[in-house]
Amino acid sequence: MIRPTAETTPAGTSYLATGQGHPVILIHGVGLNKEMWGGQMVGLAPYYSVIAYDMLGHGASPRPAPGTSLGGYADQLLELLDHLQIPQAIVIGFSMGGLVARAFALHHPTRLCGLVVLNSVFNRSAEQRAGVIARTAQAAEHGPDANAEAALSRWFSREYQAANPAQIAAIRQTLASNDPQGYLTTYELFATQDMYRADDLGHIQVPTLIATGELDPGSTPLMARQLAERIPGAQVAVLDEQRHMMPVESPRLVNQVLLDFLAHALTTQNHAKGIVA
C-alpha cells in the first residue's frame, strides 16, 4: 500500500485517506493522533475507503477553543465529511474518539450508517472517576506527558512494550509533544463526559459495535456491556487478553472483528434500502 499523504480541510483538520469503497472514519484517543491507525488503514483499505484524522488539539489539526464541548468535536467530523462530500460513513472511535463518535451519532444521525466504539468509557465508578480527575489535575500542572509512564503501562502488555521499544518511545514522544491547552481541553472532556447524553443513546438507530479488551483497566468489559445495553441492537465484543491499545498491539485481531462488523453494517443498510446483494 502506498503511504497516504496528509491533507487538510478548509477548517484545518489534518487527515489521511486511502483505499476505495464505502467510507470508514477512524477517530483516535486523547494524546494520540491519526498515525495510531496504521494497522487498520492497511487492513481495511483493500475493502473500504479509510479516513483517519487528527482531533482538535492533536497532531496537525487546530486547537479547540477553550470550553469546546463534545458537540464541537462532533462538528469537526461533520466538516470533514462535508469537505470530502461523504453523505454517510461508518464511524469508528477509540477511547476519547469513542466519545466523539457517540456525540456524532447523536448530533448528526443522518450522516452515519454504522458506529463502532473501541476501548471507550461509560458510567465510571466513583473510584474510576476520582482517578481520571486526578490525572487531569496532573496534566494541568505538569503538561501532557505527566502521566505517560503510567498510561503506557495501562495501555500495553509488558511483553509488547519489551518487544517494541522504538514504537513505545515514539508514542511517549507523541504524548509529550501535544499542545498543552489542546490536550487539556480534550482530556477534561474525556474525564467528565462518559455519561454524555446517556438518556438519548436509545435514539441511535444504526448498527453498532461496542468492543474492548478483557484486560483494559480503564475501558472495562462492564462499561462496554452497559453502553451496549443503551443502544438498540448493539453488539458487544470483548477480546481475550487484550489491553487498551489493542488496535495497535493486535491489529490483525481487531481488524477481523471490524471487517466482520462492517460487512454486517452495510448488509443491514442495504436491506433497509431494499438493495439485494
Automatic annotation (TrEMBL):
Gene3D superfamilies found in the cross-reference section: alpha/beta hydrolase
Record keyword Hydrolase present: yes
Molecular-function GO terms, alphabetical: hydrolase activity
GO cellular component: membrane
Top-rank lineage group of the source organism: Bacteria
Keyword tRNA-binding in annotation: no
Domain AB hydrolase-1: 23-250
Sorted UniProt keywords: Hydrolase
Protein's name in the database: Alpha/beta fold hydrolase
Naturally occurring in which organism (per UniProt): Pseudomonas eucalypticola
